[in-house]
Amino acid sequence: MSDNKAEVMLVVEGESDARVLAVRPEATAAEVLEVVIREAGRTDLIEIFLEDADEPILAEMLLAELLAANKLLHVGSKGLISVVVEYGQKQVSRQFRPSATMDKIVRWAIQPNELDVHAPIEDLQLKHGDDVLPGDLHLGQVTHGHKQAKFSLVFKIKPQG
User: pTM for this one?
Assistant: First the structure.
């Protein structure tokens, strides 16, 4: 990395792994987005979010301001992702940004008036098909560009002994 570049870790909607990019420290969010679009070779990416944020970052925000939030950046395509969470015989649905973490979705699903689950969030996790999802994984990493997802809410398996 040269002296005039900063390393930025971010997640791109549709990709399983995080990316590390070298960007000028004085770059704006719009300039960071341009670098991601160029390196990913995708024209559908148009928004940058802080992890778990409901609104995109303003294009003129400086990279230093974004990094000061101490949250992972997420670059995504336009639109929300429709999420269905099942628990037992019940299911609930809501739309989330691709930057939503699995923990955010679990917190929403177990709040009063959603799924009737009487367990602390630390004891719960989401499954997508047969895959158990870590709490810090972004929704956009799971859906691989699709705008809908169905999860099962399950208890974490605790080792015995």
Answer: 0.89
CA dist 89 and 86 (Å) reads 7
Say how many C-beta atoms besides its own lie within 10 A of residue 103's C-beta.
19
Same domain, 98 and 150: yes
137 in a domain, yes or no?
yes
Rounded to a whole number, what is the distance in angstroms from the first to the last CA of the chain?
Answer: 47
| Domain span at 70 | 6-77
Classify the C-alpha dihedral 130-134-136-137 as positive or negative: negative
Question: What are the b/e assignments for 106-117, b being 16+ CB within 10 Å?
Answer: bebbbeeebbeb
Please give the backbone phi and psi of residue 12, each rounded to the nearest 5 degrees, phi first: -110, 130
Domain end residue (candidates: 77, 107, 138): 77
CATH code for the domain of 109: 3.10.20.90
Q: Write out pLDDT tens, residues 48-74.
A: 999 999 999 999 999 888 888 888 999
Hey, how many other C-beta atoms are within 10 angstroms of the C-beta on 7? 9
